Amino acid sequence: MTKTLAVHPVLALTALALGGGALAQTAPATPAPAPAAADAQRVEITGGRSTSDVDQRRQATAAKIVIGREELDKYGDSSVGEVLRRMPGVTTPGPPGRGGAPRMRGMAGGYTQLLIDGQRVPPGFSLDTLNPEQIERIEILRAPTAETGARAIAGTINIITREGYKRRVNDLRLGFGAEGGRISPGFSWTRNDSRDALVYNWTLSAFQNRRETDSSTTTTDTQLSDGQRLRAAEEHALATERRNALNATGRLQWRLGGDGESLVLQPTLFTAYTPGQRSAEVPGQTGSPALLAYDAADTESHNRFTSARLNAQWRGRLGEALRFDLSGNVNGFDARSDSVRQETDSAGTWLRTLDDRSHTRQKGVALTGKLSTLLASGASLVGGAELEHFQRDQTRTTVQWTPNGSTNLGADGDGNLEASSTRLALYAQDEWTISPQWSANAGLRWEGLLTGGDRPDGGHASNRSSVWTPLLHAVWKPDEKSRDQVRFSLTRSYRSPDLGNLVGRRSYSPRYAKEVANTLTSPDGLPNPALKPELASGLEVAVERYLAQGGLLSANLFYRQISNLIRNVVSLEPPSGTAVQRYVSRPENIGDARSVGVELEARFRLDQLVDDAPRTDLRGNVSVYRSQVDGVPGPDNRLAEQPRLSANLGADHRLRGTPLTVGGNVNHVPGYRTQLADNRFAIAAGKTVVDAYALWALDANTALRLLASNLAPRDYTATTGADTATVRETSDTTTRSRLNLQLRLELKL
C-alpha cells in the first residue's frame, strides 16, 4: 500500500526543496528530525557481507556499482587506477600509464567525490599510493545520497579498506615490475584474525616505483591572417623519478555486547619520498625575440608526503528501535617539495637558477553522528550531522639567481600562507518499500562551508556559502518476480571550490622569469576569494537486467544542469612592483552548462547466452557524453576534459584441466577538442590501453601472477592554444608511453 507524505517527512521536505531555491549565502534552519514509530522493528547487525557484488547492486535503491574482493583478486591490479579504469564511465587523464585521479562521466577534477571509508581524501594524496590489497571493496555511486554527501556532480567513488571479519586471512604477496628497463620491487602483507571479543585486521605494503618520462614540447606563434610561422621553440625533456612508499592500515573491532554494540579503531599511515631529475634541451629556436630565454634546463627535485589518520567509531542502540553511530577522526598530512632549476645557453653559460621550496602542513578533526531506525512498515529512517574543520599552514620560498644577483620573487609569490576551512552538514534520509514492485529513497541535506586565508595582496579573505541538496531515488520492477528493473533519480549536487582556488598567492610560470613577459599558454596562477560553489540539478534513468548466474545488462541515461560553472579565465596583469605585463589564470564563475550521457554495460559468462560455449567471463561498457557551456562559442564548447566516448572490452577464462587463468582488457578513449574560451582551446589525443594477465595456481595456497599493462604503447599528445588579436600560440606536448610488466608471487600462509 502506498504511503502518504505525512508518514514520510523527509520525502515531503525533498519535494519542497526540489521545487525551490538551493543556494544561499547564510545557513538555513536545520531540517526537522524524522519521528520514530512506536512499534518499530528490531534492527539486526550482522558481520560480513553475505550477498554477492551483483546482488548488492541490484538490491540498492540508489544506483551503485560494487567491486569486491573477488574481482580485485581476480585481476591482481597493482593500483587503484587500474581497477577503476575498467568501470563504466570512469576515465583517467593524461598519457597511458601516467593518469591522474579517476573521474566519472569524463568530467574534470573536483566533480567526482573521492572517499576512503566515507571520508574525503586529503589534498595531495594519490589513490595510486593505495595498494589494492588494502581494499575490501569499492563502491561507485552514480548519483549522490544524503548519507554519502552531495559534493558529487559526476558521482562518488568510495574505497572501503579491509574489514576485520572472523575469517582468518594471512596473505603475503611479493613481486616486482619492469618498465623501460627499470625494476620496481614491492610487497604486501594482509592479516585477519580474532581473539575473544576482538576482531583485528592489518595490511602493510611497501614498494619502490621507478619511472622515466620522455616528452617533447613545441611552442609556435602563427600569424592568423596568413598562417605564417613567426616564432617556434622545441624542448626535449627526460624526467626520472623513484617513489619509495610505505602504506599501513589497521582495524581493531571490539564486540561490547550481544545487541550489536561495538567499538572500532582504524589507524592509517601513508608515506612516500620521491626524488627526481629532469633534463631539458632546446635544440633550436626560430623568430625574434626567442620564445624561450634558455637552451638547456636541469631540475633536481625532492618530494615528501606523509598522511596519518585515526578513526574511532562507536555503534550501539538506544532502546529496541533506535541505532546510533558516533565516529570521529583526527588527521593530518605533511608535504615538502624542494626543487632547483638551472638554465644555461647553447655554450653552457649559466643564465638563471630558480630555487623553489615549499612546506605544507594540515591538521584536522571530523565528528559525525547518525541515528537510524527500521519502522514496522519496513521504512528505514536515517538522520545525521557532520562537522569538519582543518587548518593549513604553508611556507614557500622562491629565490631567483642571475648574473645580476639574487631576487626574491616578492610578497605575491612567497612567504607564509595560513588557511582554514569549516564545514557543517545536516541530513535526513528515508528508504522504504512502497510495494513489491516499488521502492524509494528520499533525502535532504544542507551543508555550510566557511573558508578563510591570506589574499594575494597580503590581507585576509573569507568565503561563506551554504547549499540545500534534495535527493530522490526510486526503483520499479515491472514484474516483482523478474530480475528486470528500472531506476530513477532526481537530485541536486554541488562542487565546492578547492581551498587553493579561494586563498593563496601568485604562482609564477617556471618557464619565464618574473621580470620578462610570459605567454598565453604558460600563465601565472592566482586565486579568487569570491568564488561560489557550482550547483547541479541531475536526472538519471537506468534499465537493468540481472541474469540468473550473476551477469547483468544495463543502460543508464544521465543529465546535469550546472550553474555557476567554474573555469579559469586568462588575462594580463602585472606582478606587484613591476611594469611587466604577464598573463594570469584565475578561476571565475562564468555561467551555466549542461551535460548528457548514455552508459551501456554488459557482464556475463558466454555459456549463459550460447549453449556449449566456453565458460569465459565477458565484460564490456560504452559511455557516450555530450556537453555545452553557455557563454563560450562553439563548436566544441564542452565541459573541460570531457571526451565524447570511453569504452572497455575484457574477458577472463580458466583453461580447463590446467591451473591457469588468463584475461585481458582494452580501454579506449578517442581524441577530442575543447573550446575553453573565445580565444583559448585544448586538444587531447586518443588513447588505447591494452592490459593482460596470467595466473598460475601452483597449489591451494600458492600462485604466480604475470601482468602486462599498456601492451601496445603509443605516444600521447596534448595541445593548448590561444589567440591574440593577430597571433595564435600553440603548445604541443608529446609524451612517450611504455609497456609495464609485473611478476608477483602470492602466498596464503
Task: Describe it.
- The structure is a single chain.
- The chain is built from six helices and 36 strands.
- With 749 residues, the chain is mainly beta.
- The chain has one domain (9-51, 209-748): Beta Barrel (Maltoporin, Chain A), CATH 2.40.170.
- β19 and β20 form a beta hairpin.
- The model is unreliable at 1-9 and 11-50 (pLDDT under 50).
Kindly provide the radius of gyration, computed on alpha-carbon positions and rounded to a whole number of angstroms. Answer: 27 Å
Quaternary state reads single chain
Structure class: mainly beta
| Domains (count) | 1
Tell me, what is the CATH class?
A: Mainly Beta
CATH topological fold name: Maltoporin, Chain A
Q: What's the structural blueprint in terms of helices and strands?
A:
Blueprint (H helix, E strand, L loop, with lengths): L8 H10 L4 E2 L28 H7 L4 E4 L1 H7 L4 H6 L4 E2 L11 E2 L7 E5 L2 E2 L14 E7 L13 E7 L7 E11 L2 E14 L2 E26 L5 E27 L6 E25 L9 E23 L3 E23 L5 E25 L5 E23 L2 E4 L6 E21 L2 E17 L5 E17 L7 E12 L3 H4 L21 E2 L8 E13 L5 E21 L10 E23 H4 L6 E14 L15 E10 L5 E10 L2 E6 L2 E5 L2 E13 L2 E8 L6 E8 L3 E9 L4 E9 L1
Parallel strand pairs: 5-8, 23-26
Antiparallel strand pairs: 1-21, 2-7, 3-4, 5-6, 7-8, 9-10, 9-36, 10-11, 11-12, 11-35, 12-13, 13-14, 14-15, 15-16, 16-17, 17-18, 17-19, 19-20, 20-21, 21-22, 22-24, 24-25, 25-26, 26-27, 27-28, 28-29, 29-32, 30-31, 31-34, 32-33, 33-36, 34-35
